[in-house]
Amino acid sequence: MTTEAGRIFRQAWIAGVIRHYPGEPKPGYIAAWDDTPEWERAAAGAVFEQVRHFIEISGGATRRLTREQRGRYVATCWIAQIHHRMENPKPGYVADYADLPAWQRETDADIFDAIEEHMSG
Question: What single DSSP character describes residue 88?
Answer without folding.
Answer: S
